[in-house]
């Protein structure tokens, strides 16, 4: 398996030329990197005008590996080749490195780039990508991979300090400015030009040569006088607040530390790679970085697993319009009176504090009066409010706060709370929250647990993630009042009065819900349907040989058909056809050939098998292949009245030719599609051309439209412009 690394953008608050002067001091050897033994210049060339300088080096590393492994491998040092390209005019340094030793067994490749900060010419940016592929290594592949990743992560952290060390050394010598290169210059005005060009970033890979000569990172604020060269440049605080929202934007290391916390280099890499994947597949509609990070933490930074559950959650949020919940949901009066929960200041760590007096809550009465769906929606609104409060507290306290603390008072808990429908509702709520709000609970304080609590805990604990269970602290009786109790987590001044504190708490005291407010199961069922079917999206299942089709009748030419769909499972092909003939009434595929008997399956086919493409109907857009997890938005301007058929079809993997073997990705994709079934969630709308142009203007004027969306990313249910579709205004083989 190929291990990959992608660094955030690390910023030096020093000019490019000064950073290069510090960078070259590391060679041919560097006492700060004991494993970097030596480096020899293999080839060096400079362009005629002196603008570009290329240097190729052969570097030796003394890898910190077990002696037995070195003896088996038969080497003391590993060597890698590094090629540096310095462009003095453009002020960039590109570095490519690969291993020479064991190149037939291990493939290490790294690229680094130093460049001028796009918003401040007095600062320098550094980016780094690397990959490690261990094909075979005397049966020690797993061991070598672990050693490699461990030492590589260590070298990244060390690399952040090295340039800063040499910058301070230059400052102590009185060197605080290096003039820029000009056309009249024969060579750069740097202390030792030869070593500058040869400055190799060493990747210090444990098992194989790697490269990362200098990994400039968050440089200290000292010697920031270079920033005076650009009086209009943004201050450090404004840089830190940069949030990427387009595929071209990149995360800054200072931003990560300020808003997301201390992450290891490999954790940073997982975040950046998953974020980039979302930008590519979801067309900019990506969650905020802290929310992506929660899903990564929930799966121990396994990117594939995190991506799977995150995509499922994004689809769920979109289908039920959870992003608009805080604006659209108004709790019924019975909830306001009898739901014994509410927000109450914050804990000692700055986390929002939510108090739930579960023992005083009439769970049976609430379920009978409101139904399961209303309770679930109310709990979701609490979680959405928690996300919002975390963002506010992050700004207030000046440190990352991504979760909240929940205090549950169980005084009064009895067998009434174990009413079976109530427990069922609780389990469902836990299941939905666990799937869509991972790593949002920082700590759960359970106070005054009665004897009946172990019974309830036995019922619900299997549905709670193991990492979440570790955050539970349970106190029986008045144990919470002693050492190690509540005062260790909550300031004494805000302990609620009902727990012996002096702070008045606005959480309702609850009580029994009057039976006059109870509703019949039929009434609740109708209300449940109303609540959860308020969605503009529809779902459909697609099978091999059984596409799902939707007909749209167009009366006025130049209308605009818009679509927005998510591929929830499998790979599909999206087509648009036009016909002057009205399709037959929709027929649902019995799916007998597929062994599917579920009555909930939505699969409609409209194109009659006797129709001939090019005569009875024609294709007006090029087919679009969509991968699992992708979100697709687009539009088509109609040119003729008639019937337009939108088709989602199962994507058949192309058969391999005699000379071409199937790609690994294709094989894996084939294995992932179980029972030849795909699923999409879609929304379509027809607009007049004038309405469409107005909608586009409105969309472009909007900022973030979802509560989880990155603050700099635009989002619309419509295409931002007619040409945003991969295939707009195409009309081919129109039947006349």
TrEMBL record:
Q: Name one GO biological process term.
A: negative regulation of RIG-I signaling pathway
Region Disordered: start and end of each range?
192-235
Q: Extract the Pfam families matched here.
A: CRAL_TRIO, CRAL_TRIO_N, PRELI
Where is the CRAL-TRIO domain positioned along the sequence? Answer: 331-507
Instruction: Name all PRELI/MSF1 domain ranges.
Output: 3-175
* Gene Ontology molecular functions: RIG-I binding
Q: Which InterPro entries match?
A: CRAL-TRIO_dom (IPR001251), CRAL-TRIO_dom_sf (IPR036865), CRAL/TRIO_N_dom (IPR011074), CRAL/TRIO_N_dom_sf (IPR036273), GOLD_dom (IPR009038), GOLD_dom_sf (IPR036598), PRELI/MSF1_dom (IPR006797), SEC14/CRAL-TRIO_domain (IPR051064)
Q: Where is the composition biased (Basic and acidic residues)?
A: 218-229
Which residues lie in Low complexity bias regions? 192-217
GOLD domain residues are 533-686
Please provide, in alphabetical order, the Gene Ontology terms of the cellular component aspect for this entry. cytosol
Q: What is this protein called?
A: SEC14 like lipid binding 1
């Amino acid at each position: 398996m190929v291990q990959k690394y992608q660094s955030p953008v690390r910023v030096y608050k020093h000019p490019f030329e000064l950073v290069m002067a510090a960078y070259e001091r590391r060679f041919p050897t560097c006492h700060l990197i004991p494993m970097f033994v030596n480096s020899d210049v293999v080839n060096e060339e400079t362009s005629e005008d002196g603008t570009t300088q290329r240097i190729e080096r052969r570097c030796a590393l003394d890898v910190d590996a077990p002696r037995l492994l070195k003896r088996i491998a038969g080497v003391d040092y590993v060597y890698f080749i590094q090629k540096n390209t310095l462009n003095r005019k453009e002020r960039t340094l590109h570095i490519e490195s690969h291993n020479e030793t064991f190149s037939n067994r291990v493939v290490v490749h790294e690229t680094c780039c130093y460049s001028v900060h796009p918003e401040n010419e007095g600062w320098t940016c550094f980016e780094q990508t690397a990959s490690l592929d261990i094909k075979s290594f005397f049966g020690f592949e797993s061991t070598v991979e672990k050693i490699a990743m461990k030492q590589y992560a260590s070298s990244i952290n060390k690399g952040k300090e090295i340039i800063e060390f040499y910058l301070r050394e230059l400052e102590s010598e009185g060197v605080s400015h290096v003039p820029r290169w000009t056309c009249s210059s024969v060579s750069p005005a740097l202390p030792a030009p030869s070593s500058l060009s040869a400055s190799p970033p060493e990747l210090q890979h444990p098992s194989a040569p790697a490269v990362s000569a200098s990994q400039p990172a968050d440089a200290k604020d000292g010697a920031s006088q270079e920033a005076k060269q650009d009086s209009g440049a943004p201050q450090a605080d404004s840089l830190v607040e940069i949030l990427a929202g387009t595929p071209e934007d990149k995360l800054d290391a200072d931003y990560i530390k300020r808003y997301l916390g201390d992450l290891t280099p490999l954790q940073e890499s997982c975040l950046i790679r998953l974020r980039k994947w979302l930008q590519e597949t979801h067309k900019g509609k990506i969650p905020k970085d802290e929310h992506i990070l929660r899903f990564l933490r929930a799966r121990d930074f396994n990117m594939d697993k995190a991506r799977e559950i995150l995509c499922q959650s994004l689809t769920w949020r979109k289908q039920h319009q959870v992003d608009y919940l805080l604006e659209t949901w108004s709790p019924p009066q019975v909830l306001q009176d009898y739901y014994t929960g509410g927000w109450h200041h914050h804990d000692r760590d700055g986390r929002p504090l939510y108090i739930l007096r579960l023992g005083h809550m009439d769970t049976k009465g609430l379920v009978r009066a409101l139904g399961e769906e209303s309770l679930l929606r109310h709990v979701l609104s609490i979680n959405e409010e928690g996300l919002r409060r975390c963002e506010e507290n992050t700004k207030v306290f000046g440190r990352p706060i991504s979760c909240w603390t929940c205090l549950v008072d169980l005084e009064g808990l009895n067998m009434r709370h174990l009413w079976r429908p109530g427990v069922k509702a609780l389990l469902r709520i836990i299941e939905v929250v666990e799937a869509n709000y991972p790593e949002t609970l920082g700590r759960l304080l359970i106070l005054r647990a009665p004897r009946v609590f172990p019974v309830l805990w036995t019922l619900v604990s299997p549905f709670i993630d193991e990492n979440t269970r570790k955050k539970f602290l349970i106190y029986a009786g008045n144990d919470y009042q002693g050492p190690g109790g509540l005062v260790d987590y909550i300031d004494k001044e805000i302990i609620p009065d009902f727990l012996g504190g002096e702070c008045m708490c606005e959480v309702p005291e609850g009580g029994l819900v009057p039976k006059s407010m109870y509703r019949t199961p039929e009434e609740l069922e109708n209300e449940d349907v109303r609540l959860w079917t308020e969605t503009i999206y529809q779902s459909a299942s697609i099978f091999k040989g059984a596409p799902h089709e939707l007909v749209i009748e167009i009366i006025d030419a130049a209308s605009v058909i818009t679509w927005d769909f998510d591929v929830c499972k499998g790979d599909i092909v999206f087509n648009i056809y036009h016909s002057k003939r009205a399709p037959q009434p929709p027929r649902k595929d019995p799916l007998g050939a597929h062994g599917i008997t579920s009555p909930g399956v939505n699969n409609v086919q409209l194109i009659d098998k006797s129709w001939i493409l090019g005569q009875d109907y024609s294709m007006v857009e090029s087919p679009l292949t969509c991968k699992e997890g992708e979100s697709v938005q687009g539009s088509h301007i109609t040119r003729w009245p008639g019937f337009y058929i939108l088709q989602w079809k199962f994507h058949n993997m192309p058969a391999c030719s005699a000379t071409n073997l199937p790609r690994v990705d294709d094989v894996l994709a084939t294995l992932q599609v179980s029972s030849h079934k795909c699923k999409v969630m879609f929304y379509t709308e027809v607009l007049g051309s004038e309405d469409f142009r107005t909608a586009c203007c409105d969309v472009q004027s909007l900022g973030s439209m979802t509560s989880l969306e990155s603050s700099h990313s635009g989002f619309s249910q419509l295409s931002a412009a007619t040409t945003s579709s991969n295939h707009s205004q195409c009309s081919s083989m129109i039947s006349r």
